[in-house]
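Subject: design request, 62 residues
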């Protein structure tokens, strides 16, 4: 299982939980945030690769 943290950013807590549960099969460290927090998260970690799942954003934090 990769040690790389994953950030799931979604305004829907239920959808965030659903995506996080699916990712938990393959990743051991999953963090969540709301879309309003995304800018500050990207300022802290500007090199984050971005992936979109529908209207949700999943960040693979290195």
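Subject: RE: design request

Done. Sequence follows.
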């Amino acid at each position: 299982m990769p040690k790389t943290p994953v950030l799931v950013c979604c305004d829907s807590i239920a959808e965030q939980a659903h995506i996080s549960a699916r990712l938990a099969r393959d990743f051991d460290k999953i963090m969540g945030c709301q879309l309003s927090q995304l800018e500050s998260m990207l300022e802290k970690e500007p090199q984050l690769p971005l992936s979109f799942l529908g209207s949700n954003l999943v960040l693979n934090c290195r």
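The beta strands are 6-9, 30-33, 50-53, 56-60.
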